[in-house]
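Support reply, case 0932

Customer input (verbatim):
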Amino acid sequence: MITDIRSFFNLNNEMVLFLYGLVFFILGLSISLQSRRHSRLALARSLGWLAVFGVMHGLHAWGQLFVPLQATYMNHVGVSLLQIFQVLLQGLSFAALFQFGADLLRDRWPFLIWLSATVTGGWLLWLMGLGLFTDIGVGLWQQQASIWAGYLLALPGALLTAYGLRYQAEKQIKPLDLTHIYSTLRLAGFAFVAFAILAGLFGAYGDYFPPNWINQTVLTRSVGVPEPMFRSLTGLVILLTITRAMEVFDLEIDQMIEEMEIAQRVTAERDRIGRELHDGAIQMAYTAGLIMESARRKVADEDVVAQRLDRAMTALNESIAGLRAYMSDLRTEPTAVSLAEGLQRETSNPRFTTLMDVSLQWNLPETAVFTPIQATHILAIVSEALANAARHAQASHVTVLAEENNDVFYLSVTDNGTGFAYADDESGFGLRNMRDRARLLGGRLAIDSTAGQGTHILLTMPRETI
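Our regenerated output:
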C-alpha cells in the first residue's frame, strides 16, 4: 500500500510542488489585498510579515519546479545563481515568519524583534562564509543552507507565530466576544505548530545528527506521502483560517461606525436639549423673573410679601444659573473663537481619519474671528457632514473648504462617496439639524447629491454676521 502511494506521488511530484507553492502564494496575496489601515488591532500591524512569508515561500516552492527545467537550457553559472536565489527565498521567507511571530508578541517580549533580525543576519553571514571560505559545491551549499534555515528560522518562527496568534486571540479577540474568530485563530496556531515540525525538522538530509535521522526522505519512506504534500495541507489550513480571521477587520470597522453613530446621536440630542432649554425654560424663567421684579417694586421693603419675593427671585436666579451651567455641560463642540483651529481639530479627528482621508483647505486669513456660537454651529455642521460621509456614503476622501468672496463666507464639504437622491422634505434628522444651524447663523445650507456621484454640502453666510 505504501509503495503504491509513494509511486503515485512520484509520478505527480510536479503537481504536488505546484500546489504547495500555490497555497502559500495565495495566502500572501490574500493578506496583501486585505485593507487593514483602519484597524487598531496588533494583528493588523503584523500581518504584512505573514504576507511576505506566503509570497516568498510560494515562489521558493515553485523554484523547485522551475530550476530543474532551466538546467537543461542554461549554463552551470546560471543554474547556480538560480539555486542561490531559491535558497535565499526559502530562508528569507522563514525570516519573515519569524518576524511575524515576534511582532505578535512585541508588547510582551520586545527583545524578540531584535532576536529575529539577529538570527536572520547570522544565518546570512554563515551562508556567505560557507560559500566564500570553503570549497563545497553549490548543491551541498544549498543543502546545508536549507537545513539550517529550517532549524534557525522556520522552527522558532512558526512556534512563535503559533503562540503569538493564541496570545492575540486571548488578549484582543476574546474580549470582543467574537467566538468564531477566536476559535479560528487558535486553529491557525495549531497549523503553524505542524508547519514548524514539517519545515523545521523534516528538511533536507544531512550526514550528521539530527538531519540524518529526521528528514524528508525518512518521512516519505514511512508513510509514502512526500513531505511537501503535508506542508501543502498545513498551508491550506493556514490559508483558510487566516482568511476567515481577517473578517475581524470588517467587524471592527462596523463597530467603529456604530460607535460614531451613537456619538452623533448623543451630540444631536444634547444640542436639541440645549436649544430647548435656551428657547424655552430659560426664557420662561426670565419672564417670571421680570414679573416678580415688577411686583417687588410695588411692595414696601418692610412688607412680608417683599421679603418672600426677594427670596423667590434669589431662588429663580440660582435656577437660571444652574440651567446655564447645564447647557454649558451639554455643549460638546469647541467654543474657541478661532474657527481655523476648530476645523483643523475636526478634520484630523481619528473618528473620521481612520475611515477616510480628510483634507482641509483654509482660504481665510488666520485672524478671521468668529464668535463662540458661530464656531460651535459651523463645526457641528462639519462634524455632521463628515460623519455622514463615513457612515452612509462610505467615502474614501472628503475635502473641507473655507473661503470668503464678496463679503460672503463659504464653507463646503465634498466627498466622493455613494451619494443619495436628496429631497428637502425627505431628509433625516442630521440634515435637518444642519439646516437649522445654518438658519441660526443667518445663512443658508445647500446640499447637492446624486446617487453614485458623491455629495457637496455648501454653507453660505453673509460676512456682516461674522
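We compared this against your earlier run and they match. Two observations from our side: The chain has a mean pLDDT of 84. Residues 260 and 351 are 7 Å apart (CA to CA). Please reopen the case if you see a mismatch on your end.
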